[in-house]
């Protein structure tokens, strides 16, 4: 039992360099996932700008996952899961940081610049 | 008695620390470094997100960016990523000549990427859209420039590693360095996905 465990443990530490087929698969997926958003934006995008933006961001997220799996060989077993755990932690921090910054600064801009607040300015005038 | 033996087996603890070969935790440590680098890029992305619309009555993304050039640049980085993958596969087979050849191809694509980026920066500064023009351009040059600086240092590392492999062959230490550099190189490609999506594509919509 312990010998079996030790064996499995050592396998987890072996560096996985992937194979030709996995690299080619990742490459082709990346090309497709890059070409579609570029083509979409170059062609002028959808009528709704928000829809175009969401689509482009969606393709980026999928492509990042493709890179993680096919090029960086991410899986839950590497280094007994510590690689995955540190990645998840980083993603959480990045999301809080980006969403928080944009949220706070957006409200700062809309609420704290009196010259931007035309309705209020007109109110003062009358 | 049999009961006692089962108990002993159940209470088996590994008191000795695991015997890892030298450098076994390097890849995890390097990954943690990359994650901290990722946080730094996240801050620069946040800065760009906040300042990206502060044009100071200057030119905006639609006046400045050339998507076809960015597409070529993206292709260069993606090609360099897969050729580094081939270098890793050649290393796995113990093929030193093949490893060096694929590393040279990777370096070529990396330098193409840097050349195109420098051309773009030079063009922008030449037409008066330098980093001092507006908050948007300061954030743009900081974010894209930092990524370019990473690729520059990655290229220097690549040359260093090619010299080391030529001198000492594919010894375990060099293999470890290859694993680290491959993670670094693929990581830069991942960051570039964020750059071309959030800076170039969303700016042109």
So what's the oligomer here?
heterodimer
Question: Could you say which overall geometry of chain A the principal axes of the C-alpha atoms support?
Answer: flat
DSSP helix count of chain A?
Answer: 5
Unreliably modeled segments of chain A = 1-14
The level of helicity of chain B is over 70%
Question: What is the strand content of chain B?
Answer: under 5%
Largest β-sheet summary of chain B = none
Topology pattern of chain A, helix = H, strand = E:
HHHHH
User: SSE string of chain B, helix = H, strand = E?
Assistant: HHHHHHH
- How many helices of chain B in DSSP terms? 7
| Distance, first to last CA of chain A | 85 Å
Domain count of chain A: the total is: 2
Helix content of chain A: over 70%
Detailed description of the structure:
The complex is a heterodimer of chains A (126) and B (205). Chain A is mainly alpha-helical and 126 residues long. Chain A has two domains: 69 residues; 50 residues. Chain A is built from five helices and no strands. The relative contact order of chain A is 0.08. The N terminus of chain A is likely disordered. Chain B is 80% helix and 0% strand. Chain B is globular and about 70 Å long. Chains A and B meet through α1, α2, α3 and α4 of A and α2, α4 and α7 of B.
Quick description:
With 126 residues, chain A is mainly alpha-helical.
List keywords for this structure.
A: about 130 residues; mainly alpha; 2 domains; about 75% helix; flat; disordered N terminus; B: about 200 residues; about 80% helix; about 0% strand
């Amino acid at each position: 039992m312990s010998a079996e465990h030790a064996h499995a443990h050592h396998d987890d530490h072996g560096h996985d360099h992937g194979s030709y087929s996995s690299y080619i698969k990742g490459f082709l997926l990346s090309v497709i996932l890059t070409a579609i958003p570029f083509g979409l934006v170059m062609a002028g995008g959808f009528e709704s700008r928000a829809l175009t933006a969401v689509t482009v961001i969606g393709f980026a997220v999928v492509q990042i996952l493709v890179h993680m799996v096919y090029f960086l060989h991410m899986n839950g077993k590497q280094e007994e899961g510590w690689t995955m755990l540190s990645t998840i932690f980083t993603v959480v921090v990045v999301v809080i940081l980006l969403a928080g910054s944009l949220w706070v600064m957006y409200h700062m801009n809309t609420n704290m610049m009196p010259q931007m607040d035309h309705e209020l300015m007109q109110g003062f005038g009358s | 008695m049999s009961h006692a033996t089962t108990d002993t087996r159940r209470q088996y603890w590994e008191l000795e620390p695991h015997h890892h070969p030298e450098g076994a935790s390097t890849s995890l440590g390097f990954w943690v470094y990359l994650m901290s680098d990722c946080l730094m890029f996240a801050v620069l992305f946040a800065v760009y997100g906040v300042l990206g619309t502060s044009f100071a009555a200057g030119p905006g993304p639609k006046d400045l960016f050339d998507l076809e050039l960015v597409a070529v640049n993206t292709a260069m980085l993606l090609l360099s990523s897969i050729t580094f993958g081939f270098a890793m596969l050649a290393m796995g087979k113990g093929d030193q000549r093949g490893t060096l050849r694929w590393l040279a191809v990777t370096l070529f694509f990396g330098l193409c990427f840097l050349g195109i980026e420098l051309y773009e920066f030079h063009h922008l500064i030449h037409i008066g859209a330098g980093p001092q023009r507006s908050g948007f351009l300061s954030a743009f040059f900081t974010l894209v420039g930092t990524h370019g600086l990473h690729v520059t240092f990655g290229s220097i590392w690549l040359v260093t590693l090619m010299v080391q492999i030529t001198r000492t062959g594919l010894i375990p230490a060099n293999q470890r360095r290859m694993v680290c550099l491959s993670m670094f190189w693929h990581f830069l490609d991942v960051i570039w996905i964020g750059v071309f999506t959030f800076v170039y594509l969303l700016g042109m919509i």
